[in-house]
Amino acid sequence: MHNKREQFNEAMSPRLDNYLNELIQLQEKKEAYLNKELTEKAFMSNEARKQLKEKELRKVNELFQHYTKWYEDSMQTEDKPYLRIVCVVTGC
C-alpha cells in the first residue's frame, strides 16, 4: 500500500504544483483588480478606501487559502488510511 501511495503522490505532484501556481496567479490578478477598482473610487475618502481594500483583500486571501487547502487535501493521500463509520440510532 505504501508503494502505491508513493506512486500516486509522485504522479500527482506536478499536477498539484501546476494547479497551485495557477491559483497563485489568479489570486494576484484578483488583488490587482481590487487595487485598480479601489483607486478609481474617487468619491471615497482615503481612510474608507483603505479599510475597504483591507477587508476585500482579507476575504480574497481567506478564500484562496481555503481552496488551496481543500485542493491539497483532496489530491494527497494519507500514509495510514482509515474509514470512519458513523451510526445514528433514533427512537420514535
Overview of the molecule:
- Helix 1 (2-39) packs antiparallel against helix 2.
- The protein contains 2 helices and no strands.
- By secondary structure, the protein is mostly helical.
- The protein has helices at residues 2-39, 46-75.
- 74% of the residues lie in helices and 0% in strands.
Number of helices: 2
Based on CA inertia axes, which overall geometry fits?
flat
Strand portion, in percent? under 5%
Give the N-to-C terminal Cα separation.
44 Å
Radius of gyration: 21 Å
How many strand elements? 0
Q: Give the SSE order as H and E letters.
A: HH
Poorly predicted runs are none
Structural class: mainly alpha
Q: Determine the mean pLDDT.
A: 83
Q: What does the largest sheet look like?
A: none
Instruction: Assign a percent range to the helix content.
Output: over 70%
Name some characteristics of this structure:
2 helices
Question: How would the blueprint of this fold be written?
Answer:
Blueprint: H1 2-39, H2 46-75
Helix pairs in contact: 1-2
Short précis:
This protein has 2 helices and no strands. With 92 residues, it is mostly helical.
